[in-house]
Design a protein that fits this description.
This protein is an alpha/beta fold and 287 residues long. The chain contains twelve helices and eight strands. Strands 1-2-4-3-5-6-7-8 form an eight-stranded mixed β-sheet.
């Protein structure tokens, strides 16, 4: 089955926004939120998975602010989730989507999806799947050090990507796509800006009770935990799910982003959670 993925642009919240769309426009929408590594974008994170989901859903995958071809806007006086969640809410409003929507995110996108459940400027949510996104805490030294730096070369970006995926036939193509978006003017500064050093006397006292905010959430939540993930502590999913007994956890033998190089397996997990059975002939087209 051939799936047409459309690249579209619109303005939402005053910002230029690129997004990918696939599937029947009348089908139930599914929002995909990409990772936050260098060169993260809708196509970088979801290109291999979208064709597997589009036969069942209207798939919408925007570039978040600071990433891809969306505007390189960042706010330094609030959390990295808050303004991006407000932007996603504007994105859905412009598209005329007001009913609760299913949301899937990977890494920073998974954290954004989880945080969307409790943010005041969010949008109606039916369910959330977070693939290796904890909501923020429990990042490892590798995530805080190795993943946060990039010298601008393809070779060094490959080092970063190897924290995300196993070797697979599409590795070089993925690296090319990630380098494409990592090299867009403004992306490097947008990602690096929030990490700038601030004098001790100017650092605000921040109280973040996460994940306690999820205690009373009633929407279904699925956490996909990767057993070979070097970027987040192994206990993260148990810690998040401990606050709410309805949260489900699935483990997969993989590094941080199986949606990139194991889309067939991720599609089956999503189908089981969201209520559709993945067609075996479609799954065979995955990398």
């Amino acid at each position: 089955m051939s799936v047409q993925v459309k690249e579209r642009w619109l303005r939402c919240g005053g910002y230029g926004t690129r997004f990918l769309e696939a599937g029947d426009p009348d089908a139930e929408p599914l929002l995909l939120i990409h990772d936050g590594a260098w060169g993260g974008s809708a196509s970088t994170t979801w290109a291999n998975l979208i064709p597997l989901l589009a036969p069942y859903r209207r798939v919408l995958a925007p570039d978040m602010l600071g990433y891809g071809a969306s505007d390189k806007a960042v706010f330094l006086d609030r959390s990295p989730y808050a303004f991006r969640i407000a932007h996603l809410a504007d994105f859905l409003r412009v598209l005329g989507i007001s009913a609760p929507i299913d949301v899937v995110g990977n890494s920073f996108g998974g954290s954004t999806a989880l945080r969307s459940l409790v943010m005041p400027d969010s949008f109606p949510i039916r369910s959330v799947v977070s693939i290796a996104g904890s909501g923020g805490p429990w990042r490892t030294p590798a995530a805080l050090g190795e993943l946060s730096r990039w010298d601008g070369t393809r070779e060094d970006l490959a080092r970063v990507v190897r924290f995300l995926v196993d070797d697979f036939p599409g590795f070089e193509e993925h690296l090319t796509e990630r380098l494409r978006w990592a090299s867009v003017p403004g992306h490097y500064k947008a990602i690096q800006a929030p990490t700038g050093a601030v004098p001790e006397s100017l650092r605000p006292a921040i109280h973040d009770p996460w994940p306690e905010q999820l205690r009373d959430v009633t929407q279904p939540i699925l956490l996909v935990s990767c057993t070979r993930d070097q970027l987040i502590e192994p206990e993260w999913a148990a810690r998040v799910s401990a606050v709410n007994p309805t949260i489900r956890v699935v483990e997969i033998d993989h590094p941080h982003s199986p949606n990139i190089d194991r889309p067939d397996e991720v599609a089956r997990i999503l189908g089981d959670f969201l209520g559709f059975a993945l067609d075996s002939s479609i799954a065979k087209t995955a990398l």
